[in-house]
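tokens incoming
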């Protein structure tokens, strides 16, 4: 109405429809669509000669990936990498968790060793690579040593933080009930530190895998990193990138497996209960 009445202007309903339609699309579909679009763009640019010859078309990499998966020698290289990674990670967990528990449980011990720990922790694993090669050569023992060194500090500090982050009220409560130190540790300290330890395990596993492959690339020790170097020296870019994709898929599989294991073992933890309820 024009005479004395307020004029109401309505926006067309169709302007909101595209936004709502996008919101209804599952997240995984958007992620895969973005990945497919990126690969298509790279394919076009590579085929048209815009990109350097060192960046092959994704279709060529996929073909090389299929050849690599069917090659037993590649699986042997993967096994070498995983054995070194698993051995070093096992040592880091076996030593790091009890050490973190011990240091975190005593303020006196923590204060005495804090300076030494803070000095050793920032040393990158690559910095001790010459020492590792000198002591163990270029074989699997050298890689296990470097993985253990790099993963140990992550596991140690996550365990230490978990022990020191115990709720003071819970600690005082169990003391008031007169529980033994072993029972206090089992009922309060360990459950409180469990999530920290699990997080440290995931981080240490990722760092350990990176260190393993990087060491193979630098030193030439047997593994997937060594295979990548072989294809690089041979000038086979597609096969090289296919092996890089395999290395990335190994990392994704390791991370996903550890997350599933964490959810199963720590299903009672508040962090996972919140995730389920949200």
């Amino acid at each position: 109405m024009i005479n004395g009445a307020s004029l109401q202007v309505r926006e067309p309903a169709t302007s909101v429809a595209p936004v709502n339609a996008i919101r209804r699309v599952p997240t995984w579909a958007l992620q895969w669509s973005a990945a497919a679009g990126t690969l298509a763009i790279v394919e076009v640019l590579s085929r048209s000669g815009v990109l350097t010859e060192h960046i092959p078309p994704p279709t060529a990499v996929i073909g090389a990936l299929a050849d690599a998966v069917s090659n037993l020698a590649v699986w042997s290289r993967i096994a070498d990498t995983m054995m070194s990674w698993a051995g070093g990670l096992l040592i880091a967990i076996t030593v790091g968790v009890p050490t973190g528990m011990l240091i975190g449980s005593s303020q006196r011990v923590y204060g005495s060793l804090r300076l030494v720990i803070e000095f050793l922790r920032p040393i990158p694993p690559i910095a001790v690579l010459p020492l590792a090669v000198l002591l163990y050569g270029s074989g699997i023992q050298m890689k296990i040593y470097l993985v253990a060194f790099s993963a140990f500090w992550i596991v140690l500090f996550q365990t230490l933080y978990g022990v020191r982050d115990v709720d003071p009220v819970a600690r005082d409560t169990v003391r008031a009930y007169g529980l033994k130190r072993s029972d206090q540790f089992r009922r309060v300290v360990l459950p409180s530190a469990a999530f920290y330890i699990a997080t440290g395990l995931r981080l240490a596993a990722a760092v350990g895998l990176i260190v393993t492959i990087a060491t193979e690339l630098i030193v030439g020790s047997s593994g997937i990193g060594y295979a990548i170097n072989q294809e690089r020296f041979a000038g086979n870019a597609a096969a090289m990138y296919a092996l890089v994709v395999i290395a990335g898929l190994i990392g994704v599989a390791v991370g996903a497996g550890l997350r599933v294991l964490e959810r199963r073992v720590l299903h009672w933890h508040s962090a996972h209960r919140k995730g389920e309820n949200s």
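note: The chain has one domain: 81-277.
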